[in-house]
Amino acid sequence: IRLPVFSSAHAHFICKMAAVQGGLVDAVEEKTIKSEPVADATANNSANDARAPSSSPGSGVSPGVNKPAAGAAEDQQTLLAVLQFLRKNNLSESVEILRREAGLPEDSLDQKGGDSTGTGLGGPEADGRTDAGSLLSRVTVSSSAPSKAVAEDQPDVNVVLSAYSQQGDPALYEVYYSGLKKFIETVLDCHRAELSQVFYPLFVHMYLELVYNNHENKAKAFFEKFSGDQECYYQDDLRVLCSLTKKEHMRGNETLLDFRTSKFVLRISRDSYQLLKRHLQERQNNQIWNIIQEHLYIDIFDGMPRSKGQIDAMSGSLAGEAKREANKAKVYYGLLKEPEIELPLDDEDEEAENEEGKPKKKKPKKDNMGSKSKKQDPNAPSQTRIPLPELKDSDKLDKIMNMKEATKRIRLGPDNLPSICFYSFLNAYQGLTAVDLTDDSSLIAGGFADSTVRVWSVTPKKLRKVKSAADLNMIDKESDDVLERIMDEKTASESKILYGHSGPVYGISFSPDRNYLLSSSEDGTIRLWSLQTFTCLVGYKGHNYPVWDTQFSPHGYYFVSGGHDRVARLWATDHYQPLRMFSGHLADITCTRFHPNSNYVVTGSSDRTIRLWDVLNGNCVRIFTGHKGPIHALAFSPNGKFLASGATDGRVLLWDIGHGLMVGELKGHTDTIYSLRFSRDSEILASGSMDNTVRLWDATKAFDLETDDFTAATGHIHLQDNSQELLLGSYMTKSTPVIHLHFTRRNLLLAAGGYNP
Amino acid sequence: MAEERRQKQCSVTLPTESMKAIAESIGVGQLQEESCTALSEEVSYRIKEIAQDALKFMHHGKRRKLTTSDIDNALKLKNVEPLYGFQSQEFIPFRFASGGGRELHFYEEKEVDLSDIINTPLPRVPLDVSLKAHWLSIDGTQPSIPENPPPVPKEQQKVESTEPLKVVKPGQEEDGSIQAKGQGAAQSDGKGKDKGLIRLKPRSTHELSVEQQLYYKEITEACVGSCEAKRAEALQSIATDPGLYQMLPRFSTFISEGVRVNVVQNNLALLIYLMRMVKALMDNPTLYLEKYLHELIPAVVTCIVSKQLCLRPDVDNHWALRDFAARLMAQSCKTFSTTTNNIQSRITKTFTKSWLDDKTQWTTRYGCIAGLAELGPDVIKTLILPRLTVEGARIKAVMEGPVISNIDKIGADHVQSLLLKHCASVIAKLRPQPDVVDQYRTDYGYLGPMLCSHVMKARTQAALQAQQVNRTTLTITQPRPTLTVSQSGLSGSTGPRTPSIIKVPSSLALMSQRPGTPSQPSPPATKYIVMATSSGAASTQQVITLSSSQSASPVTTSVHSATSALQPLVKLDSGGSTGLTASRPLQKYIVVSLPPSASSSLEPKSTVIPTPIPSASLDGGLKLERSDSPGVRTQSPH
Predict the structure, then answer these.
(1) Model ipTM?
(2) How far apart are the first and last CA of chain A?
(3) For the segment B220-259, what is each residue's pLDDT rounded down to a tens digit?
(4) What is the SS3 string spanning B249-289?
(5) Which of A132, B33, B462, B616 could cross-link with A9 by S-S, CB 3.0 to 4.6 Å?
(6) Which residue from A76, A215, A84 is spatially nearest to A155, judged by alpha carbons?
(7) Which residues between 405 and 434 in chain B have a beta carbon less than 8 angstroms from any beta carbon of chain A?
(8) Scanning every residue of chain A, which has its alpha carbon at the shortest distance from the alpha carbon of B150?
(9) What's the predicted TM-score (pTM) here?
(10) d(Cα B435, Cα B456) in Å, to the nearest integer?
C-alpha cells in the first residue's frame, strides 16, 4: 500500500515543481504536505474541530493563484517534461495520476484533495503522507531548484533551459543592451530610477542566453562591459554568474536556475512601463521585449513613479521585490490570551482549581501583568487556531515566577539603558557556532564546530542528571521532595557536554519549560536532548543537508527548522516526521523564528528575503524584501506586531507585520548581524554583530509612526534616515563577535560570543 | 576600481600548465592543449563553486576566516569526499623558492630527530571551553575593566591627534555622529546641541577623574621610588593597562621633565627609571604615542648621548643606560618612523653628526655609536664600518698614548668593545672566508686584529650552531619554547590558558606587532615567565647570568653605588663580586643579566682570556636573555 501513496505524493511534488517552473511562484509553491499532528487526544479534539473547516479551503484561497493564464502554456510544457521523466523512471502509476490531474490544473495544485481521493482513510494515510514527505524532501528541494536532483541527464532541465534557446545574433546583444541603457538614461528623471530596475534582470538573462547558446566569448565581453553598471548589492550574484561561462555549467548551478524558475519581480508605475513598452516597440527590439515578457514579472501600479531611494530600500533580493498581493493576506499578529493564573498571595493552592489552561474568568481580582491581555485583541488568532500543549503545573509555576520578576522589571528608555552582561566563551578556538539562553536566564547552551553541545548553568544551581532506573526504584515516590530526590547529586557540575552530532552545530534552542534542548547540525539532523538525563532523545531526520537553524515554539511542543535544502519544516517533538514543510525560498534558509503566538513562523534566507508562514495551513503570508545580503538574525517584538531582521549587509530592517511593510532601517553595524532581541517591553532593540559590538536602538521611536492607508495600499514606503537618532549606545567587546542576545525578565541584557584572541 | 578588480577576479582560471602538471603526476603524459584548457576552465569553475559554498559555512560558523573544514563541508554538500587529513599547522603549508628563472613550490619536510621529539615534554592539552561573564555596560556606560576594550581605541586616538575636529563621542559611529551633528545644527534638541559642543571644542585632556589622579600619583611615585617590587608592578601596569590614554600627556611630560632635571643633577638611577617608563609606554598596545614623540624622543636621545649622566663617570655604569636608551630609540624608529616624520633619518643624522665631530667626548661618542648600531646591520654597514679606521686611531691614541685621564681611557675602552661587538657579526657576513689578521689591519687599522679574532669567533660559533642546531636550541632555549612556542604555535590556545582575558590580547598583539626586533626587550615575557614554572625560567637565567658574571668578574672592580636607591642597578656592574651574587637570593642573578653586564662581559674576552662560552654564541644567547631582562627583573622580586 505504500508505493502508491509514495508515488502519488511524488507526482504532486512534481506537479508543484511544474507549477513553480511555470512561473506561478508565489503562494502556490508554498503548499506543503499536510498531516495532522497526532497529539494527545484530549488536547487536540477541540483543535481539530477548529482546524477542519479552515484546512480544506486553505490552499485554494491562497492569493497567488490569480493568474494561471499567463503561465498556462509553459505549464503544459513542463508538465510534459515531468511526465517524460516519470515514464523514464517507470513510475507508471504516477504518470496516470499526474495525467488525470493535469486536466484540472487547479486541483492538481491542491494536494489535499488529490491525496484523499487517492488512498482514502485517515490515520494511516496521514502517516504515509508525512512519510512520503520526508522521503521526497529532496524532490521538494528541487521544486525550487529542479536541477539539484538532476546531476544526471534529465529532460526537464533542458526544458527549463530551452527557453533560452531563442537565437538572436549574439553580436547584437550588446547593441540592444546599450540601446536600452541609452534610452533609460535619457528619460525623465522621475522614470529613470524605476526603469533602471530592468537593467539587472535583463543583464542576467541576456548573459545567460549568450552562455546557453555557446557564445562564450561574447558572453564574457558582455559581462565585462555591463557588469559594472549593476547595483552594488547584486555583487554576490554577479560573482556566481561570472564564473559560469559554459552551457554545461548551467545544469548544476542553483543561482542560475533560481533565475530561470522564478520570475524576477519588478514594481513599476504604469507611466514608466508605457514608456518602456513604447520604446521597445518603436525600436522593434524584440529580443529585450521577449525577455521582459518571459522572464520578468512586472507589477504595474497606478500613480507616481517611485524614487530611487524607495526602490533601493525594497530591492536587493534574488528574485526582485515581493509582489504586492503576496503581502495582502490577513495575519493574526496579536498575542494569545495569557492563561489566567492567580498570583499566589500566601500559599499556592490554586494549582488544583485552575486545572485546564483555558482562562475561565474566575476571579479577575488582582491587577497583575496579565491584565492587559484580558481583552481579546482583534488581531489575535483564536485561542485554538492551532492546538497548543496544555500548561503543566511547572509551566504555571514558571509563569508565576515570570510575573513576579516582571514586577521588578526595569523600565527602559533612551535615558535608562539596560546594563549588559557579556558571557565570553573562552578557549573556543573560533569553534562557537550557536548560543541560546533559557527564558529565565538560568541555563546557557553553546553549539560548537566540533559537533558538541555544551550546557552551562549560570546560576549557582548545578546541573544534575536524573538517577538511573535502578536507583529511581528505590525512591519513595510519595515523598514531598520526590522531584529533588530523583536527581543524582553525584553528577552535579556546572556544565554538561552533549555528544551526538557528527558535524558543526549551527542552531540551538531551549524549550520554554527548560526540559529539552534542540540542536541542528551540519549532519542534516535535529536532535532533541533531555536536560533531565542529558541524553539525546530523538534525532529528527528530514533535512538531508545542513540545518542552519532551529527554534522551539514559545509554547513548546512545536519547533521549526530550516537549512540548506531551502525548505523550512515544522515539527512536533513527538513526531519524527515534519508536520509542515514551508517551501518557497530560493536559497538556503539561514534562520527561523516563531511568532510569539506560535501561529506563524518566519524564515530568513540567503535569497535575501524574509518569509512569514502560517503554521495552520503552510501558506506564505508575507514576503519581505530589502536586505542586500543573507539574513542571519530575526526577532519578533514581544507584542507580535513587528519584526526586526539583520543580515550580512550590517543593516537592521524593521517590518510591520500587519501591513506587510518595511518601517525602518537601522544602519551602523559594519559586519554581519547575528543576533537581535527586543527588550521585554519592546522599548529597546539590541543588535549584536560580527563587528564585535552590541548596539542598542530606540525601538519605541522607531515604531512610532502612523501608517496611512495609502502607504499600506501601495506599499510605497518613505524611510527617513534616522539611524543615528535611534542609536542609543554602542558597546564594543574586546575581540568577541556577539552571536546571541537575551533580555532577562528584569530587562538586563545578556550577550554571548566566543572570544577570538 | 572595484569593478575592474571584480572583473579580473571573474576571468581568472587556473593555468593550463597546472593541468599538465597534475596530469603528469597521475601518469597521464602528453595532454593536449585543448583538453588542458577545457579542464582548467571546468576545474576553475568547480573550485569557485565550492569556495562559494564554503563561504556559507564560514558565515554560519560565525567566523571571518575561511577554514579547511569549511571547504570539507562544502565538498560534502556536493557529495564529494572531503579531503581528509589536510590540517596544516601553518597557514600555507608549502614553501616557495626561486632561482635561475624558475619558481618552485615545495613542501618543506625537515628531517626530524626522533629522540628530540621523545625527549621534549608533551605539549599541554588545550584548555577546555569555559564561560566567563563580565559587564559590558552598566546603565549604559561601559566600565573600563580589562575585559572591555580601551575606552578610546588607538585608531580614534590617532584620528583625534591628526584631525581634532573629527572627534567623536566614544562608542559612536564616526560618520554617523557627524551626520547627527549636521542635523544638530538645525534642530536644537538637547542631544544635538551636546554633540555640536563637542565638535566646537575638541576633547580637552585636562580633566582627570579622582581615581585617575590617584592612579597617576601612585604610578609615578612607584616608578621613581625606591621599592623595586612596586616599580615592577607600576611598569607592568603602564605596559598593559588599556585605559591610560587620558593620562598619556602627563606621563609624557613627567618623563621629559624628569630627564631634563635629572641629567643636570646627574641622577643616573632616576634616568634609568624614566627610560623604563618610556619602554613600558611603548609596550602598551593601546596607546597612540605618536602625539607625544616630540617629548619622548628628546628625552631618550638625551639619555643616549649626554656627556655626563652620573656623578662619577669613571665608576658608574651609565653605559648600560645608554645601551638601553639606544635600544628604545631603535624601537621607536621602527614603530613610529614614517615618510612624513622621518624619525629614523633625522636621528641617524644627529648621531652621525656628533660622532664625526672631533671634539665629541667619549661618552657621547659611545652613545652615538650605540644608537646607530642598534638601528640594524644596514646602518652599521654604511655608517660605522667605514669609520672603523678613524675610530681605531682615536682609540689607539688614548689607549697607547700618554695617560691623560682615566675617564677617557674607560670611555675609549667601552667604545672599542662596543664597536667590536656590533661590527664583528656584520663583518662576518660581509667578508669572504679567510680572515687574515694583516688584511684586517690594513682595512680597519688599529681595531683590525681584534676584529679579526672576533669575526673568527663569530664564524666558528655560527658554524657550530649550524651543526648542532638541535642541541643548542635545546639546551639554551629549552625552557623558553615551552613559553614562546605555546604562545605562537597554538595561537589562540595559550592566551586563554590564563583565566583572565586581559593578559592574552595585549601580549599576543605585542608579539605580532613587533616581531623581528631581536634587540628589543620583548614584552610578552613579562607575563609568561611568571606563569611558567618559575624554576624553568629561572634556571636559564641562572646559567646565562652565571657565565656572564664569571667573565665579568676579572675586569670590573667593585664600587659602591652612589645612592641606596640605585643599588640593584648599579650593583649589577660591580656585581662581579661573586660573593655577593652567591649570597643574594635568586633575583639578584637575574638583575645581573641586565644589558650592561652583557656588554661588559664581552670586554674581557677580547683582551683577557677565552671564556668557556664562545663569544658569538654568548652574544646571541645573551641578547635573548637580555631582551627579557627588564621583564624578568620586574618579576623577580616576587
Answers:
(1) 0.76
(2) 59
(3) 888 888 888 889 989 988 888 877 877 888 889 999 999 9
(4) HHHHHHHHHHHHHHHHCCCHHHHHHHHHHHHHHHHCCCCCH
(5) A132
(6) A84
(7) none
(8) A734
(9) 0.62
(10) 7
